[in-house]
What does this fold into?
Amino acid sequence: MGAIGGGLMTYAFLRFGCRKCSQLSAGLVLLSMLLVASPDSVLAAEKAASGPERLTASSGYEFERLWPQLAQQWHLDNPSDVAIDSSGNVYVTDTDNHQIKKFDSSGNFLSKWGASGSGDGQLSAPEGIGIDSSDNVYVADTGNHRIQKFDSSGTFLAKWGDYGFGDGKFNSPTDVAVDLTGDVSVVDSKNHRVQKFDSSGNFDYRWGSQGTGDGQLSSPKFIAVGPSGNVYVTDTGNRRIQKFDSGGSFISTWKAKGSLSSFGFNDLNGIAVDSGENVYAADGLVGTIQKFDSVGNFIAEWGGKGWGVSKLGHLDDSIISDSLQFSGVAVSLAGKVYVADVGHDNVRKFDSDGKLVNVWGVHSEGDGRFDHPAGIAISSSGNVLVAEPGNDRIQEFDASGGFLSKWEDSVGSPVGVAVDSSGNVFTAEPGYPAPIRKFDSSGNLLDDWYADELASASIAVDPASGHVYVADSIYSWILKFDSDGKFLGNWGKYGPGDGQYHRPAGIAVDSNGIVFVADRGNDCIHKFDSDGKFLGKWGSYGPGDGQFKDPSGIAVDPSSGNVYVVDKNNNRIQEFDSDGKFLGKWGSYGIGNGQFKNPTGVAVDSDGNVFVSDTDNGRIQKFTPLPPNVRIWPRWSTAPYGYWSKLAGIVKDKNDLPMASTRVYLQYKEGDTWKWLKTVTTNTTGYYQHWFYYGGGNRTYRARHAASGEYSNLTTPTFTKNITTWNNYRPKVKYCQWTKLHGMYGGPTGVYPNHTLYLQRWNGSRWVWQATVKTSSTGYYAAWAPVCPTTKFRMGTWGSAVTSAAVTKKGSTLTAWKNTKVHASIRDGYGSALTGWTLHLQKWNGSKWTWQGSCRTSSTGYCNFGNTVPSGTIRVATGGSRVVSGTL
It folds into this structure.
């Protein structure tokens, strides 16, 4: 860029007056109790009734920390362009995050806007950006083939354009610039032209066509407008800059000068013009900024392809991604030059002579920060050593990420790093010949020797013998040295067979001298003894469990012997036992905690903590092992179609202790695919819940512990119109006399024995404790209490109300109310009566259910079947579907 400038849970109560009918309610009391009972008591009941089912874990590790602790909200992912407003604020097109991010001139994050999509204000891989004199922001929404206009706060103002070849249409617009009159020029890259519009998006005119002649263009990328109104275009396909007047008439052309004069621009990208009409152009392939005057006379250049802080590209595509794809440039009114460096996912600020002033984003050179960290190893003291070729150094941290030291002298550009049992550190780097260096634990160089040509430069040390193994990806073999660099032998050759390699990239040795090799080209892991005898291999290309896409780093747990593999292009870590049996996995593409962007190295300490060099995110992530056998106790509630339902449960560890503040993924099944529903976090008791609305048919759900990958047992809610019962223990007595209050406590899976319940009495202002009772082996409970006229009681768990009834006066003697009337009431989760429902009373005759009577609910949801109750097993149903059954 180059311008200046109460739920709906259905429930019901079916009341059987006779004492015998309490048995009918035993298996159905639970649902009404769930509405008020505490999570722990309910889940304990379900645990006793069924217990969990343990399925294969997807990971036994949980994210602990990362360093440096980046402000993730401004983590840049392939920033393509920059623009400066009148206040000096910097706007960046964060291309792969589909956002615009705004910073002050020092790189302090201010705001962001945009999200992936095609709606107003949404973006699809935006590239170029421009700003007018009123600080309105114009974005080349490349993937959506349009221009969008925002104010400086990100409020959407307008849009124009769509895919096509006519006037006002675009084919991948890549940049936009605004002149002092407010006219907007757009690089219509794949249409090989420039289009000009007014500030509202009305088409004015266009120029350019595909070709190599003056005024013709080939895949142009960026555009800038000088203070005089002249327009400068990076004619990338023709490897040149073209200059036009404000009307699009060709003025001149020039190619690269300075170090590039012999072969011209390679990948011409960003361009900007300062207030003196000097032109700054970025060449992405070689990572240089070249400065010209307005007629193309060469003034200066800086940068270059490489790893250092002043570099703008990078070299080794076996470690990092390919060369710089875009590098936008902008110049502030103060003459400061800003570069969007895709290769390092950052923004760099220079003065007009190319002196670096500031850098912010993912990759940088400060202590404790990284530029594409690669190899990683654990020292004998438990510290973490990181090979950082981007800054030509080794950095040392404690296990919590605290910066301890850095080694920069005699280090070279290390990619691989390993530590022996004496604390000596070995490094390897790509090159020809490739140096292997040996340091003491303080970073003092002890020795060096050279291997053959290396590209991946992966290195490992046998913890027992001290022998050093190097994976040579050029010749596809393994080299073996003693600790002083004496060559001991090699094995392997290029090919797909057993013991053959195609670009081996990672190597690790266990305590028994067994060597494991990550074979990038063949997407598999090889296993050898210390003499190179082939012992086996596993893996194939793909995204499945035990499959790989470019396995790079590899490490062995010194305690368990399990093998951890960096599955680079699947952006995950996979865990295996020493024979290749898949044990777990974690990670996905992204910038969040536990996500990766082309990770490279992995190491495991003696406590089983796993450290990963998240290379293209410029950070180290640490994961800690979870206690094994994590359990998720589920509780599924049920609801009719179109009502709210709750999924809930509790997470406990192997010691049956609740796990607080841990994430749980709630999922539902659609076809053969499990899809995300909601991520919830457990409370201090390990309890989780989620209310949701679903209006379709039956559906299967499950809960997955986010870190361990443990699943709940698969319990499927049935979306039917459920009716349940409470035990009707309403006695009718005269005055205050002792009366037995009794019933059954149970749920859909049966009765709940040996559970503590609490009888409470309403004293006119609050509920007070009356008695504590415990259910018998049959789930039966009983309590004696003085019952007076109008006395109210309730029975609950942990003091929560479950049932209540008013005791009324009847005669002068104590009697238990034997009501033969079968009656029910139905209400929804808001407490509203379900009016006009037809309920059916049915009896089991030994072979089938027979109809005994029907009734229709009143305006209060009440339904009366009458006073004659058939003996035997009965049920109440809606539309012929069984809801409640029991034996009278």
Observations:
- The longest helix spans residues 39-49.
- The helical segments are 22-25, 29-34, 39-49.
- The mean pLDDT is 76.
- The radius of gyration is 36 Å.
